[in-house]
Amino acid sequence: MQLTLAAKYMGASMATLGLGGAAMGMAMVFVALMNGTSRNPSLRATLFPQAMLGFALAEACGLFCLMMSFLLLYAV
């Protein structure tokens, strides 16, 4: 019984590691937006929607990892 509980906790913690990757992905999106805007400010209207799309995709990956960690932890 304790071995399965330990396996659940280990699986949930490994799935939660994906949240760190999603956070780094979001940071990289906004760093690229600031870098592109500082190099050519007239492209801000073009770069901003693409940055929002990248942010949404990175956030979705993070939420998927969080959902997987809850499923692994609370599965019967």
Secondary-structure blueprint of this entry?
Layout: H1 2-39, H2 44-74
Protein name: ATP synthase subunit 9, mitochondrial
Organism: [Candida] jaroonii
Keywords: Mitochondrion
Describe this protein's structure.
The chain is mainly alpha-helical. It has a single domain (2-74), classed as F1FO ATP Synthase, CATH 1.20.20.10. It is 91% helix and 0% strand. This is ATP synthase subunit 9, mitochondrial.
Principal-axis shape:
rod-shaped
What CATH calls the topology is F1FO ATP Synthase
Average pLDDT confidence is 88
- N to C succession of SSEs: HH
CATH class term: Mainly Alpha
Tally of helical segments: 2
- Note the main sheet: none
Number of strands: 0
Give the fraction of residues assigned to helices: over 70%
Organism: [Candida] jaroonii
Keywords: Mitochondrion
Protein name: ATP synthase subunit 9, mitochondrial
Describe the structure concisely.
The chain has helices at 2-39, 44-74. With 76 residues, the protein is mainly α. It has one domain (2-74): F1F0 ATP synthase subunit C (F1FO ATP Synthase, Up-down Bundle).
Question: Which terms summarize this structure?
Answer:
F1FO ATP Synthase, 0% strand, rod-shaped
